[in-house]
Amino acid sequence: MAHAVGGVTDELVSLRQALWSIPETRDALLEYYERLFTPGIDEYYFGEPAIESIECPTLVLWTDKNPIHGVDAAERLHQLIGGSAVHVMEGCAHWPQWERPAEHDAVISQFLQRACE
């Protein structure tokens, strides 16, 4: 889930263990993952017409090492969502908030400040 060596820190492992040790959280996560891989799940995905209808300020925050979808998916979302902003974090995978926390937090903070103006 992390691209860079050292991206999975002891702190991250401890946090994940703590979250999974809460019975309600563990049950919810297990149900989520079970449903995520259920045959026919794609019928619940948002299609392009639904994505195009998004009217609120939107930040498409992506990573160039995303293990599921490439940067082309971020570019497509940006094209579909009018007025959206896009930022691709380089050298990160699925946990950019842990891999590059300063950049992650700065991008989100700047987006929220602009959205609230």
Mean residue pLDDT? 90
Structural class: mainly alpha
Globular, elongated, flat, extended or rod-shaped: what is the shape?
A: globular
Q: Report the C-alpha radius of gyration, rounded.
A: 16 Å
Beta-strand content = 5-15%
Run of helices and strands: HHHEHEHH
> How would you write the strand order of the largest sheet?
1-2
> How many β-strand stretches?
2
* Uncertain regions spanning at least 5 consecutive residues: none
Largest sheet: 2 strands, parallel
Distance between the termini: 35 Å
Count of structural domains: 2
Helical element count?
A: 6
Helix content: 40-55%
Features:
2 domains, two-stranded parallel sheet, 117 residues, single chain, 9% strand, 6 helices, mainly alpha
Topology:
Blueprint: H1 10-20, H2 23-36, H3 48-52, E1 59-63, H4 71-80, E2 85-89, H5 96-99, H6 101-115
Parallel strand pairs: 1-2
Write up this protein.
With 117 residues, the protein is mainly α. It folds into two domains: 9-45; 48-117, no CATH class. It contains six helices and two strands. The protein has helices at residues 10-20, 23-36, 48-52, 71-80, 96-99, 101-115; strands at 59-63, 85-89. A two-stranded parallel ribbon has the order 1-2. α4 links the parallel β1 (59-63) and β2. The termini are far apart. The mean pLDDT is 90.
Would you kindly provide a brief summary of this structure?
By secondary structure, this protein is mostly helical. The chain has 6 helices and 2 strands, in the order H-H-H-E-H-E-H-H.
